[in-house]
Every structure is written in C-alpha cells, then in structure tokens.
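Possible regression after last week's pipeline update?

I re-ran a chain I had predicted before the update to compare outputs. Posting the input and the new output here so someone can diff against the archived version. Not blocking, just want to make sure nothing changed silently.
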Amino acid sequence: MATEALVSFAVERLGDKLIQEAKFLKGVSRQADRLHRDLRAMQCFLEEADKKQKEDSRVRNWVSDIREAVYNAEDIIDMFILNAQSLRRNFFLKCGFKKLINRYKVGKKIEALQLEGRSRSAENQMLQGLRRSSPHGEEHVVVGLEKEADELVNQLIGGDLRRRVISLVGMGGIGKTTLAKKVYNHRQVVECFPDCRAWAYVSPDCRPRDVYMQIIKQLVCTSTKDQQVIEMVEKLQEHELGDFLHEHLKEKRYLIVLDDVWSCRDWNCLAKVSSNDLDCLGNVFPDGGNGRRLLLTTRDKDVALHADARSTPQKMQLLSKQKSWNLFCGKAFLDHVDADRYPPDLVQLGREMVDKCNGLPLAIVILGGLLSRDMSHTEWRKVHDNINAYLAKEGSQTGVMTVLNLSYIDLPSYLKPCFLHLSLFPEDYVISTRKLFLLWIAEGFVLSAEQADQQSMKVTVEVYLNELINRNLIQVVRMSVNARVVECRVHDLMRELAIRKAKEQNFFRTHDIEDPLSSSTSNSSLFSSKCRRQSIYSDVERYASVEHNTPYLRSLLFFNLGHEICRFSQLDFIGKCFKVLRVLDLEGVKVESLPSIVGTLIHLRYLGLRHTGLKLLPLSIGNLRSLQTLDVNNLKQVPNVIWKIQNMRYLYMEGQKYDIPLKIDTLENLQVLSGITFKQWIQNNSSKLTCLGKLKLEGRYELVEGVEFWKSIAKLRVLKSLYLKASEESSFPSLAMDSCLYLSKFDIKGHMQKLSESFQFPPNLSQLTLDSCRLDCDPMPILEKLPKLLTLRLRAESYLGTEMHVSANGFPQLKVLQLFELSKVIKLNIENGAIPWLMQLHCQFSTRISGVDKLSNLVEVKIVIDSMIPSFSPFARFLSTYRSRKYHLYWDHSWTTNRNGQKEFWTRRRKGLTSVQNSAVAVEMIGPIFSRWDSTQEKGS
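New output (post-update):
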C-alpha cells in the first residue's frame, strides 16, 4: 500500500489538534467528538489494511477514499482554527462541522468492515517466483566483486570454529545474491563443505516450512530411498521439520545460504531463536564447534547484527564509474570492455545512461540487456531520453522499480512518510540531517504517543533516519566524530521510487529546473489543488507570479541549486495563497524583505530563512503561535517579540550584528538555542528554560560577570551541549565550569588567557573541542586528567607550542583524538600506557607522533596533508610503493580530498581483527611507515 501510513499520521495529528484547539470549537464539541470516533475507526481499519500490501484492490480503493476524507477533514479544521481567532463565527463553525460529518459517511463502511485473511494475489505470487534465487546459473559478467569475494571466502573457510552467521548487506539490486552465488560455487568453498551445502530463498513473505523443505531437498540425495524420505518429511509439521533438519545437521560441517532475509522476526522464526534469549544459537542450525557457517543476504543491517552480533556484516558498495561502464559493456556490447570499435555516438549515450544508474548493478544490467537488442542510434536515444521509464518497466515484475519497491513495502508505517519526504529534495542533493530532523518534526512524522516527552522527538527522528540507513534506503555522506550522521543523500533510483509513491497520493509536487515554466502556465495553476507539499528548484520569480490554486498546501520548500541568483522581490503571495502552511523553507534564496503578512500563518511550524540575506524580521513574527523552528542567520537584530512564541523549540539566530536586549525566558519548551549573545543571555532568567539541552552563545564574553554567567548555566538541569564563541576582539579568562554537572559536550572558540585546571571542568564531560584558543602552554597535562573524556579535538591554533606530551595513564577513556591546523606543533609524545582505548587518531602530516605502536585498540588513522608542501609528492609515492606484507594484510588505505582542498591519507584496520594479538600486530604497522619515511627524508637531506 502507498497511502495508509500518511492517513494514519493525518488521523494522529487530527486527534491531537482537536484536543489542543478545543477552546476554539465552542458549540461544536458534539460534532467534534463524533468526528474523532469516526477517525479512530478508520485508523483501526488502516492498521489491518497495512498488512495487506497490494493484495486486494478493494482495500486499495478504501484506503484512497479514507485518504481523501481525512485530508478534507484536516483542511476544514485548519481553516476553522484560522477563522476562530475571533469567536464571532460560531454559526460558520457549526455548519462547517455538519458538512464535514456528511463527508465522513465513508467511515460507516469501515465500522462494519471485516478483513478476512486472503491468499496472496496472483501478482504477488508471480513476483515471488521471478525473484526466487538458486545457486545455479552463475552470472558470466561479474564486475567489481573480486576483492569482496576473496574476503567472503576467507570468512567462510577460515576464522574461529564457532558457528558464524556472515551477512551481505545492501540496497535492492546491488548484487548481494550475485556475490553469494559466486562464493557458494567457489572451488575452495566447495572443497571445505563437500557434503553439506544448501541454498534457500526466503522472500519478504517468509514461510519457515518452505525454507526448511528447500534445504532438506538439497541435503538429502535424490536416490529412490532418499526420495521416500523426502515424501515422508513433506508430511511433517513445521516444528517437526525444524527438528528433522537439526538432527540432520548436528554432526556435519555445513554451509547454508539464506537469500533475501527481510526482518529480525523472520530470522527468529527460521532459526527458532527465543525472543527472550537473543544470545541463543537457535535449535534448527546447531553449533558444533567445527566451523559451521550460515550466509545471509539482507537489505537491513539490523537483521545481520541480530543474527550474529559478533560478526561484522559485509556492506555491499555501489560500483565506481569505471566498473559500472565495464559491466554495461559486457551486457550491451557483449564483449566486455572492448567498446572502441562501436560508434562514438552510442558510446557517449551509453556513458550518460550509465551515469544515471549511479553504480547500481541491477539497473546497469537491465539497461545493457535492453540496449543490446537494437544497436541503432534512434533506439538508444529514445531510451536515453526516457531512462527512468524504461528502468521501471523493463523486465515487468523484475524491473528495477519493482525490486526497489519491495523495500518500500517492507517499511513499517511510521517510516513511510519519512521516506516519501525525501522526494522533495533535488537529485544528488546533500541533505543536512539537522535540517531533515527539524522538517520531520514539523511535518508531524513522530507518533503522538512519543510526543509526551518533547525532548525525545529529535532522538526519535534520528532513530528513524538510522533505520532507513540500515535498510539501505538512504546513503551516508558524512559522519560526525561521535559516529552520528551529519549529511546524507538518496540514490537517484531510490529517489525516483519515492517520487512515484508520493505522486500517487498527492504527497508532493515539484517544479524542476529541467522542466522550466512555460508561458502557457503564467495564468494557470502549476499544481493540483489537492497537492500537500511543493518543492521549487528554479525560477522563483515566475513561481511567485502565477496563479496558485493550492489553498491547502502544507509545505513549501525552495532550493537554490547554484545555477542562478534566486531572488524574491515580494513574498506577500505566500501569506495570501497558503493560509494553512506548516513548513516554509527559503534557505539560499535571496529575499529582500519578509512581509508582515507572514505573521498570519498561525499554523506555521518551521520557518527556514538561513542564507537569504535578510537583515530584519517583521514584528508580526511574534504572532506565529505554532512555530517550533526558526532558522535564520546574519540579521542586524532579532526583534524582541520571540518571547511570544510559546511553542518554540529550536531557535537558530547566529551572527547578530547588534547586541540589543532579547527576552527568551518565557520559552519553556525551548530545546535548542543557538546564536544568542552573552549579554542577551545574562539578562534572562535561565532557570525558566527547563527543556534547554543545547546552547550556543557568541559575542563579547567580557561584557558579563564570570561567576554570574556560570551560575546561570548551572541552572540548566538538562543542558548536555554548550558552545561558547568569543568575538575576535574578546577573550576568555580561566573558566570555572565544575558546577555544570550535566554537561557532556563543550566547545570553545576564541582566545583563552589560560586553560582551566582539570578540576574546574564539568565532571561528566565526554567531548571537548578547543578552537583558536592560542594557548601558550601544553594543554595535555591538564586535559589527560579528565576521567570521562572520550573525544578531544584541538583545532586552528588552539595551541601555539611545538611539542605535546601525554604521560603514562593519561586519558584513561579517550577514544578519539583530533589534531588539526596546529601549524607549530611538530611532535606528540605518547608514553607507554597512555590513551589505552584510543581508536581514532587524526592529525597533520607535519606532526610526528611517537608511541603510536603501543596503541593496541587503534583502528583508524587519518593524516591531513597540504598538497602544496614540497614533501607531499615524495610521501605519496613512498606510500604507494610501501611493501610491508603485514601492513597490507591488516590495514587498508586510501586517499581523499577534504572540503578545504587538502589531501587526506586514511588507513583503517581491516574488519575481523578481534583478538588483542592481531590488533597489536596491526597497529605496529603504522609506526614503521612513518619512521621509515623519516629516515628516507633524513638520507635525502
């Protein structure tokens, strides 16, 4: 089903709104109660309908009817609330609700509805049959899997003797089954498991009995006698089949492949793992301590970790451009990579089409197979110009979209709106997760049951994001130092799937830069009147000038893709045309001024004005009583009306030019406050900000009295993160922060006269960043005494000396150490026994580190190198020719370029090195690289 999740969320929000706005609905309480009951009945139906997926057209039609009805209800109630600012319209309200109840006659059908269990539809059975895999018929054209196959073979035939579940994880169509086949039929694997190998296809509709029978038929020989055994076994019940399989396997060294496992529950059912004891090895697949193996393919990382928490899942990667082209040539030209003898026009078209596949093997294989049938320019151009349509339909039930759609169908209802929301972002757009979280919260994608604790809402949406990532529906672009996702993107084909699903239910419409407005649209509506969300990629002035026939629009997002200077000379039309708007994001679009009429958007929850060039906000912004997020920067001043917005939770206002008074201590729901000045802060009563968990202050610190300032911070009982940024002409004295008992993350940017003593730091500090502090004395003797510190970052001349020293037993819990842009630091000495748990070390090429070979838990080293320095090229050549067998056995390395254009050398310890001995051997390889490079330099000089 494509719509039931959104209707469920609409019902949830509607129920909440009826409660919150009851004071406006005088005289209509009876009608409101009746409507609420009908909506709850609809929701019960939807919970059942969600399980039916695409199996029944009647269910699909009913859900469509309900979606329309609930959207109508939402529209009318939002308009009621808009008009209920004055209570002089009771008659209109009563009449409106009566009209609304009449529209809800569809709900009466649902009260009597009995959803009977139905067998799978013919369509679903066909899809399952076409997708059913077997270990036979191995692909002849396999590109880019050699390294992965070798690693997987080593895991299957080597390693410890306990029973292990090894998993291949990746998005649909990425080649998990292809790799599994290649390994299953590998000579060494066949020799290691000569008598007991089996392959079973699981499918989204997991049926343990079918899976057991697939395995048993492969393990039991096909002689007449054994055929009689199979006939006998087929009469057994499911649990008896599991017992039979257990008995057959318990004395053998086996390899069982379970292809396409969808959920942790499916794994529990197949292995008969008790939900009360997840460490149980399972009754069906016994552990005999003789190197038994199960190989899983799954789209969900959580399934892999659930099946075997001690094994690291092997993540399948998208193909590089060159490997994508090689695979395409093997399919389209039928002679692998020898495409030189083909017409250049076909090669050019082919490369452009392969780029659109973004490294997804299934899409490339389908595309190549399609084009191999007709080598004419006309046919290739036709496919080139309509590539998404061809990828969707080619192969019917095995088309790319059909395969990817299985991932969407498998999503729980609470994740479907989050996935569909990603369709609003442009192709290849890098999405800030901070912004994404705030948009999801404003959209109401967090269930009302979870909203009781407002502090948990950002935690909840982060869980949602990670679940979509683990299901391989979202790609990670950048991680923070504490392993949280900072930026992400969506694969082009996955975005195309989201767009198709979103359009089915008027979830959104987009104006694409590739499809500019024609003159014919200047006097007509661009979008359906039922459209709920719009994203605009270009030509914002013309968008403002056309007639808008979407009065119930809820979200309006603008994207400046860098192709033009996007400007709005006037924004009055937004307040006039979209009166029930909830989300308005103008980030990156140049706006001359924000009109007062914006203050009439009383439903607005999110207002994004970052990088718009705005210098002032209208006083009417104080009327936005529903506003949860205000994101703006570089204003001349923030109007002193913010205190009126009682629902405000996330307030970003960095870069104020003038430090004028700003009252904010009435915002009892405020969770994030970023950009308030030190002087503004001290003028408020911080004890009233009982929900504030994250605070960023900037400006001139000397304008406040230090003791009073830290007392105000200590009053924040839930504050976890504090960022202090001093202006260039300002500086910090020694800071006494020991009264901040709950603070775990502290960032400070600006000149420090002296580093505080270790006992003056917050007692529970786990993450510390010093930036531009210009300290004269080595900070390590003080910082190494912080007992709970896990992450330390020293940046941008935070220390002006040449050497740093970490003594024995220093930093007892530190896991991450980053030393960046410390231009004068040439040496870091680490004594034996110091930083025993360090896992990540990031530093500059100019800093020589002694003692790194004693860091037995180190798994990652990153070295930032200025490519302009004379020694860069020799160092790069030295690393490329370094021949230590042990180093290459235990460590992988790569070159990247950071945002500043600097080269970064990454080296990571390979997965699977779990013993202390192997860890120690691996880390010993790092020291010799740099010591040998040093000696090479000395000889050269």
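Follow-up from reviewer: compared with the archived run. DSSP finds 33 helices and 31 strands in the chain. Marking as no regression found.
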